[in-house]
Every structure is written in C-alpha cells, then in structure tokens.
Amino acid sequence: MSRVTLSRYLIEQTRDHGTPADLRFLIEVVARACKAISHAVSKGALGGVLGNAGTDNVQGEAQKKLDVISNEILLEANEWGGHLAAMASEEMDTVYPIPGRFPKGAYMLLFDPLDGSSNIDINGSVGTIFSVLRCPDGVSEPGEADFLQPGVTQVAAGYAMYGPQTILMLTLGSGVKGFTLDRELGSFVLTHDDIRIPEQTQEFAINTSNARHWEAPVQRYVEELLAGQTGPLGKNYNMRWIAAMVGDVHRILTRGGIFMYPWDAREPNKPGKLRLMYEANPMSFIVEQAGGAATNGRQRILDIQPSSLHERVAVFLGSKAEVERITRYHLEADAAR
Ligand code: AFP
C-alpha cells in the first residue's frame, strides 16, 4: 500500500473536508520547520547548540541556545508565506507582527518552540508545540488582545516530538493523526491513523517532589494512586515523568494515562507552571480529539477565557475517567469550604 505523506493527507483533507489551502500550507510550513529543528537538536554537542544562550525569556527563565534557534527557525519559516497575520511564542515577550514587506493571511500561529528544553543537555526527549487561531475579521495588525481566544476556537493544533523517532501529531478538529519523519525521504509519513486514549488507565505522570506544596484534592488523589489495589482505586498504578510535556502527552496518546501539573504553593500567585496559550490549549485540543479530557482541576481548559498572552494554568489531562475523578475531588473540596 502506498505511503500517505503529510502533504497527501492535507490535500485529501482539502478535497474531502474543505480544509482551506492556506491552512494546509501553514501546517506544511510548520512541519518543515520542525524537520529543521529536529536536525538542529540531533546535532547536540557536535553542533555547538547545547547549553544556555545567556539570555532570559519573558518568564524569567534562562533560555537554552536551542530555545532561541528553534524560535528563529519557526519565525523565518512562517513570516513570508502570506498565510499568517501574526505569531506569538513562549520565548518572545509580545506578538510578532508579519514584516511589512510580506503579505498577511487569515491565521495566527502560537508556539512553544522547544518544550522540555531542560532535557536537551541530557539527551532527553523535547518537542515543539503549536496552535492555530483565526485572526479576527477586519483586523490587519493583530495585537495581544486578538490572541486572547479560548482554546475551543483553535482551528488546528499539533506537536513534534524529537525522541528516538521524530513524530508529528496533528488535529484539524476531526480526530488526531500521527506522522513519522522518514529521514531518507525527508517526508512525514502517516503512521498513526486514528489515535484514541483509553478511558481507563493504570499510569500517572506528576512531579511528586512537589507533593508537600499541592492542594488537598491532589494530595488525596495521588495518595490513592500510590495505595494501588490496597486503596479505594482497587488497582495498582505505574508512574512516569519525562519532564517534557510533549513526551508525557505522547505516551498518553499512545497507551493512556493521566498527566498532572497542578497549582502549588511554591508560587501561590501563579495558577500553575504550564502556559495556557502555548502548551495547555494545543495539548488539550489534541487530547479531547483523541477521546480524552483536560481540565485545570475545576473547569475544561478549552473553555478558559485567557486574560494575558503568557498566562499559566494548572493541567490535568488524559484518560477521561481519571481526569473526571481528580476534577470531582477539587469541586467536592471547594463545596466543602
Ligand atoms: P522546560 O521547557 O523549562 O524544561 O519546562 C518543561 C515544562 O514546561 C513541561 O514541558 C514539563 O512537563 C514541565 O515543565 C516539567 O516541569 P518540572 O521540571 O518542574 O518537572
């Protein structure tokens, strides 16, 4: 059977589902940029790309050289094509307008150019996460306020994971497809045709070193997971923590599980560590399209009305039954106050 490349899949989506040509072009350009990032990441020490860049991002976090390189690859790949009105990146303070010498388009692209960058120097999995919004009608120079759309308005989302394989996972709003990079062809080839997350699971992902800082509902739930078949959940659980959201989400899309990054008391004024626009919204869109669920412990993440471009959020996502349980524990605790 002939292999279905990303290009063929996207052309068939246009023919069968009316996917706009500009959106198809956008996804192809992002995929090409992810190929370039995969190449840069794989060079490691040989490419002089390890270590810190000597700068901080808007979050006040030290930027890795590859954070900056990946961000530039995505900007340069996307700014000239005429499909975008603007871009926004976790690594940049504010909106990146399309330079005046280039035409503008109907979409806005948001990305975390290299998620999990603390894994770079230890050769751990890292990835690129992206989200596509429509530019509001009549807006030619979108500003920050135009990006503040709830995740439910996304028209596409995806990630590339740079692990033993480079895999691109993509949703256009009708299911989730996975494409593996064939380095000999230089093409992403369809290898995961219909991703479904099992409703039940026996695997959880959380950074348990923060346990003493969690809210009571999270402590209650994780204690039950650790109690296994001796506790109320009546079965044993396994634990994984890749410290790169793309890696944990990819495992969940592959075999189920629940991923948690809750609010914790270390920075009580922040709702969580993960970013709503660049990490939580695209990953929640993908997870829901694969039959899973995603909340901030109290409400569906995709329904959250953003108030700032770099807003953070608590994240509980994955197998529906487990996400519903931990969300119920939060709501019960709130009701008991
Ligand atoms: P970095 O990009 O700074 O490595 O952070 C990655 C991340 O945003 C997300 O991808 C991980 O799930 C999470 O942070 C890991 O956080 P901890 O290092 O606190 O476990």
Within CATH, the superfamily of the largest domain carries the name: Fructose-1,6-Bisphosphatase, subunit A, domain 1
Individual helix count: 8
Q: What is the CATH architecture term of the largest domain?
A: 2-Layer Sandwich
Write the CATH fold name of the largest domain. Fructose-1,6-Bisphosphatase, Chain A, domain 1
Strand order of the largest sheet: 4-3-5-6-7-8-9-10
Structural class: alpha+beta
Rg, alpha carbons: 20 Å
Mean pLDDT: 96
Sheet-strand content, in percent, reads 15-25%
Low-confidence stretches: none
> How many strand segments?
17
How much helicity do the residues have? 25-40%
The sequence of SSEs as H and E is: HHEEHEEEEHEEEEEHEHEEHEEEH
Largest sheet data = 8 strands, mixed
Distance between the termini: 60 Å
Label the overall shape. Answer: globular
Query: What oligomeric assembly is this protein in?
Result: single chain
Overall tally of structural domains: 2
CATH class of the largest domain: Alpha Beta
